[in-house]
Specification:
mainly alpha; MetI-like fold; 0% strand
């Protein structure tokens, strides 16, 4: 039989219920306001892409009279603009740098993350890797430009692919090593008993289990590579080799600006990263939080 004191324990305090409701309501309002702050510029950009530059200058915040897709037609099919060429350049550079980053960071992260692989200078090398995360990438631009010039790689895809991958490797390797360190060692023991080599254990057993971390590294780095501008205009000066971010600078300048075309180019340029995030969003969050708690 439940006593009176036990009954009071299970009763909900009305004041506490009001506080919880008020707290949740306040949090909801703050999140909604933040969401509006993020969405309003995006919505305004999409609206601008269906207007003309003259209409935008006359009424910057007005609505389009008709949904005119002429701006998108010019971007996609006008040979003088060559937007699709720049789009292709960005795809090659971003995917190439991503592949190099994934190969090196997964293998390096596995070596640093698994305690059974003890090699000389393991600790100092990993500390040096973490130290590089604190250095601003801008301090390397002049040495990188000099290096690429001596190697004859300026105005090529490889100049951006190699630099992007080198810049992304420290944080990517750290994320992969953190995830690999959480996986049980019994899996490696069982695979080696079955006759697997170290590489087979990595490729067939451990790597598939690290899919959330791989998705996180993929999405995080692809967005960084795709949106990078400063290196793209430093290492590549040939107009035909420009990436999409560098090419969009042509639409807004001192001598003239085509805001409608610029808005349309922004909408098209964000589609790859948006689609990639929609596909990988669940695994991205799982990969970020995987190393928070050891199980």
């Amino acid at each position: 039989m439940i006593s009176h004191s036990q009954t009071q324990k299970y009763q909900v305090d009305p004041l506490r219920r009001i506080k919880d409701t008020f707290g949740k309501g306040t949090l909801t309002i703050v999140l909604m306001l933040f969401t509006l702050m993020v969405l309003i510029p995006f919505i305004w950009m999409v609206i601008m892409s269906f207007r003309t530059t003259a209409d935008i200058l006359n009424d910057p915040f007005g609505l389009p009279k008709t949904l005119d897709v002429e701006n998108y037609g010019k971007l996609l099919f006008d040979p003088e603009i060559g937007f699709m060429r720049y789009f292709f350049n960005s795809i090659v550079v971003s995917v190439g740098a991503l592949l190099v980053t994934l190969v090196l960071s997964t293998m390096g992260g596995y070596g640093f993350g698994r305690s059974r692989y003890q090699f000389k200078f393991r600790g100092p090398v990993f500390s040096l890797l973490l130290f590089s995360l604190m250095l601003p990438p801008q301090i390397f631009y002049i040495p990188q430009f000099t290096m690429m010039s001596k190697l004859g790689l300026l105005n090529t895809y490889w100049s951006l692919i190699l630099i992007y991958a080198a810049t992304a490797l420290p944080v990517s390797t750290y994320l992969m090593s953190t995830y690999f360190s959480q996986l049980p060692s019994e899996l490696e023991d069982a695979s080696q008993i079955d006759g697997c080599t170290h590489f087979q254990t990595f490729w067939y057993v451990m790597l598939p289990l690290a899919r959330p971390a791989i998705m996180t590294v993929t999405l995080m780095n692809f967005m960084s590579f795709w949106n990078e501008l400063l290196l793209a205009i430093t290492m590549v000066t040939d107009p035909k080799m420009r990436t999409i971010q560098a090419a969009m600078m042509m639409f807004v300048g001192e001598n003239g600006s085509n805001y409608a075309i610029a808005a349309a180019s922004l909408v098209l340029s964000m589609l790859p990263t948006l689609l990639l995030y929609l596909v990988m969003s669940d695994k991205f969050i799982e990969g970020l939080t995987a190393g928070a708690v050891k199980g």
